Amino acid sequence: MNQDKINSFSLSTILFSISIAVLFGIINSYLLYTSNTSTPISLFIGYIISIILSLIPLKLFNTHQDKNLTKKTKIAYGKLSIIINIVYILTSLTLYILITYRLTSFISSQYLIETNKIYILIPTLILTYYIANKGTETTTRISQVSFFICIIIFIFDALGLITHVNIDNLLPIISTSKTNILKSALMFSVFFSVPFTYINITNKNKLSDKQNFNKYYHTMHIISFIMITSAIIITLGVYGIHLTNLFDYPLYTVLKKISLFNFIDSIENASIMLWPLALIIAASIILLFINNILDNTTKHTNIIKKIIPIISFTISYLFLMNNTIIETFKYLIIPTTTVIVLQSTNLLTLLLLKIKKEN
Q1: N or C: which end of the chain has fewer CB within 10 A?
Q2: What is the DSSP annotation of 54-94?
């Protein structure tokens, strides 16, 4: 497959999908519970911090533009690069498992209540496996199409809900301690910046218009932030913080308020497609990232690629589906540790590359 056809915009759209997936799949409930009506402030502070943190994966991408991530780790770590590649694979696999499980859990609880989660998880794993194995060019094109679909759906949702917003539900602006606001801001900044690691599914020289990538990178960062913040503000404005925290999926439940032309109700099933679509694309991108590392580090790539969905299914089945801790904030220990390790690895790799380049 000729990856030279990849353009900067299509690659940048993966940032949108993964950012949305991280919010909906992992941390939105935590942010709302911790910051209450101060959540928009936490998001803004977190966004400012994430601008700095997101420069780490961007600079890593811009360094040695003719080399992929595995070759960069080889330059940075030498023989120890195999360990670093394993870290990238394991951290990414953890995020992949969490995202596919949260999507499965959402579909099961909201649409297919009587269906065993196994019969939802298996098709999800197969679909993401299929997309990832189509390669970088095809996957980024799918991501680009999905981006426009999500934008259209979001605009429709926002217009349908804006008349239901009660400003009083957003007050007081400061409703919790500074510690909680800062804690949420830091959590959001880390999760919001780390997914940008996955632009490294290719190297910059394979972009047909690489000179435009940095511009699209920052633009997609802004668009993702605006959508996430708007979704939370609208949800808070419609329900208020107390009712919002009662729902498992408040960003979905609020869509029940939408009616089309004042007489077509219950269209939330169509409107909510934004979130599952983003989750599927995000999981596919992460799996593609893992596949690309395997392609450059082992001779048994095809076998391992086929084993990964099996491993994901097994872990989800044994440790997530029958474990109530996944429905509490304690489960955040795993993804939080994962993204910190991932970001730390990015930073260390970047620093070593800079040092060796200077020498």
Answers
A1: C
A2: THHHHHHHHSSTTS-HHHHHHHHHGGGHHHHHHHHHHHHHH
Average pLDDT over every residue of 318-346: 78
Select from 229, 235, 230 the least CA-distant residue to 165: 235
> Rounded to an integer, what distance in angstroms lies between the CA atom of residue 270 and that of residue 275?
11
3-state secondary structure of 264: strand
CA distance 224 to 161: 19
**For the chain, how long is the longest CA-to-CA vector?**
69
What does the alpha-carbon distance between residue 92 and residue 71 come to, in Å, rounded to a whole number? Answer: 18
Give pLDDT, residue 112.
82
Question: 262-271 — which CB contacts under 8 Å span 24+ positions?
Answer: 269/111, 270/153, 271/153, 271/156, 271/157, 271/160
CB-based contacts of 114, cutoff 8 Å, min separation 6: none
- CA–CA dist 181, 46 (Å, integer): 10
pLDDT tens string 71-96? 999 999 999 999 999 999 999 999 99
Per residue in 257-288, is it b (16+ CB within 10 Å) or e — as a string?
bbeeeeeeeebbeebbebbbbbbbbbbbbbbb
Q: Which amino acid is at 112?
A: L
Q: Per residue in 179-202, is it b (16+ CB within 10 Å) or e — as a string?
A: ebbbbbbebbbbbbbbbbbbbbbb
**Beta carbons of 340 and 334 less than 8 angstroms apart:** no
Long-range CB pairs of 312-316, under 8 A, 24+ apart, other chains included: 312/93, 312/96, 312/97, 312/100, 312/125, 313/121, 313/122, 313/125, 315/97, 316/97, 316/100, 316/101, 316/104, 316/121
pLDDT in tens, 238-247: 999 988 888 8
Record the tokens describing residue 82, joined without a space. Answer: 């195999």
Residues 6+ apart with CB under 8 A from 123: none
Write the CB contacts of 191 (distance below 8 Å, at least 6 apart in sequence): 22, 23, 26, 27, 335, 339
Interatomic CA distance for residues 316 and 111, integer angstroms = 20
User: Phi/psi of residue 260, each to 5°?
Assistant: -95, 120
